[in-house]
């Protein structure tokens, strides 16, 4: 097949650009083991029950930190521990969550809390609970047959 000289140059240029582009995207995305900001801490998913703070799920008052409470959640197919928890209105809370098995979601309906829980990683989100009421926590990652049964309740009380 006969190819025009310019055609060859442009073809080479095009492929070259593609290679450079993919390299830049690939290298920068995973450079230094980058992960989404909410998943920087790692954990052994088989030892969640004996690893702090997941050995004591629920709400805990803390001292000397930028937040007043830590709200610890352990997700597993197909539930959250705790299944229901009360939080005082106006409290600055660091939500700390992980999963014991597969990927689960952690979406607090009606708020901007929406995390992905990955086995081996700890997801965290600090927020102030300034709206009273009952909030449903739902799993928004398909995790198996009981996915739609997976929920918890956060009650923000005065
Ligand atoms: Cu857990 Cu879907």
Q: What key phrases describe this protein's structure?
A:
cytochrome-c oxidase activity; elongated; CcO_II-like_C; Copper_CuA; 158 residues; five-stranded mixed sheet; metal-binding; alpha+beta; transmembrane; binds dinuclear copper ion
What would CATH call the homologous superfamily of the largest domain?
Cupredoxins -  blue copper proteins
Q: What do we call the CATH topology of the largest domain?
A: Immunoglobulin-like
Radius of gyration: 22 Å
Shape: elongated
Walk me through the topology.
Elements: H1 5-30, E1 41-42, E2 58-61, E3 69-76, E4 79-81, E5 84-88, E6 92-99, E7 104-108, E8 114-117, E9 121-128, E10 133-138, E11 151-157
Parallel strand pairs: 3-6, 5-11
Antiparallel strand pairs: 1-9, 2-3, 3-4, 6-9, 7-8, 7-10, 10-11
The structure holds dinuclear copper ion.
Dinuclear copper ion (CUA) binds at residues 78, 104-105, 139, 141-143, 147, 150.
How is this structure best summarized?
The chain has 158 residues and is an alpha+beta fold.
Your description of this structure?
This protein is an alpha+beta fold and about 160 residues long. The protein folds into 2 domains: about 1-35; about 40-155, Cupredoxins -  blue copper proteins (Immunoglobulin-like). About 15% of the residues lie in helices and about 40% in strands. It has 1 helix and 11 strands, in the order αβββββββββββ. The chain has one helix at about 5-30; strands at about 40, 60, 70-75, 80, 85-90, 90-100, 105-110, 115, 120-130, 135-140, 150-155. The strands form 2 sheets. Strands 1, 2, 3, 4, 6 and 9 form a 6-stranded mixed β-sheet that branches. A 5-stranded mixed β-sheet has the order 5-11-10-7-8, with no helix packed on it. The longest helix is centred in the N-terminal third of the chain and has 26 residues, at about 5-30. The structure holds dinuclear copper ion. One of its GO terms (cellular component) is cell envelope. Subunits I and II form the functional core of the enzyme complex. Electrons originating in cytochrome c are transferred via heme a and Cu(A) to the binuclear center formed by heme a3 and Cu(B).
């Amino acid at each position: 097949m006969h190819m025009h000289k310019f055609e060859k140059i442009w073809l080479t240029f095009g492929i070259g650009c593609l290679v450079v582009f993919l390299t830049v995207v690939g290298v920068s995305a995973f450079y230094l083991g980058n992960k989404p900001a909410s998943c920087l801490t790692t954990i052994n998913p088989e030892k969640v029950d004996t690893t702090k703070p997941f050995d004591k799920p629920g709400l805990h008052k803390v001292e000397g930190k930028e937040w007043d409470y830590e709200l610890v959640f352990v997700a597993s197919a197909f539930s959250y521990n705790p299944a229901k928890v009360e939080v005082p209105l106006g409290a600055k809370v660091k939500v700390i969550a992980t999963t014991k098995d597969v990927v689960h979601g952690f979406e607090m309906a009606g708020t901007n809390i929406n995390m992905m829980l990955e086995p081996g990683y700890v997801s965290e989100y600090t927020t102030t609970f300034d709206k009273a009421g009952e909030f449903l926590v739902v799993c928004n990652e398909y995790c198996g047959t009981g996915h739609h049964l997976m929920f918890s309740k956060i009650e923000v009380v005065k």
